């Protein structure tokens, strides 16, 4: 079974049609269309088509597991909240370390 990659907005193009994990702050959510915009750790914005009952409230920090669409948006499969003290700079650094030393993770 392949592992699910942690991504930022700038790396989505490398994962089209694959399941990824994206962490960021919900910038907006339209309950009528179930469409959210997430500000990823690298500052880029990613559209997310939410599943019914999803809790993507503006301002919340979330981790979204989803499939990357051709337009680089995500189709949510599941999401969960992160702590309010989330530090996007530290998260990006953590991703850099895991990619540099994959044998440790």
SSE blueprint:
Blueprint: E1 5-7, E2 19-30, E3 35-40, E4 45-49, E5 61-68, E6 74-81, H1 88-100
Parallel strand pairs: 1-2, 4-6
Antiparallel strand pairs: 2-3, 2-5, 3-4, 5-6
- N-to-C SSE series? EEEEEEH
Report the sheet with the most strands, covering strand number, pairing sense and barrel closure.
Answer: 5 strands, mixed, barrel
Say what oligomer this is: single chain
Please tell me what the overall shape is: globular
Give the helix tally: 1
| Fraction of residues in β-strands | 35-45%
Give the total of beta strands.
6
Alpha-beta classification: mainly beta
Task: Return residue spans where pLDDT drops below 50 for at least 5 consecutive residues.
Answer: none
How far is it from the N-terminal to the C-terminal residue, by CA?
Answer: 16 Å
Give the fraction of residues assigned to helices.
10-25%
Mean pLDDT, all residues = 92
Radius of gyration: 13 Å
The main sheet orders its strands as 2-3-4-6-5
What does this entry look like structurally?
The chain is mostly beta strands and 105 residues long. 12% of the residues lie in helices and 40% in strands. The chain contains one helix and six strands. A five-stranded mixed barrel has the order 2-3-4-6-5. The longest helix is centred in the C-terminal third of the chain and has 13 residues, at 88-100. It is globular and about 45 Å long. The two termini are 16 Å apart.
Task: Describe the structure concisely for a colleague.
This protein is mostly beta strands and about 100 residues long.
């Amino acid at each position: 079974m392949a592992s699910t990659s942690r991504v930022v907005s700038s790396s989505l193009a490398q994962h089209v049609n694959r399941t990824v994990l994206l962490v960021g702050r919900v910038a907006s959510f339209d309950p009528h269309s179930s469409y959210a915009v997430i500000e990823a750790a690298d500052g880029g914005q990613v559209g997310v088509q939410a599943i019914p009952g999803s809790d993507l409230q503006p301002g919340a920090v979330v981790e979204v597991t989803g499939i990357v669409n051709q337009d680089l948006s995500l189709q949510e499969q599941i999401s969960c909240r992160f702590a309010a003290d989330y530090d996007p700079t530290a998260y990006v650094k953590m991703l850099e370390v895991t990619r540099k030393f994959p044998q440790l993770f």
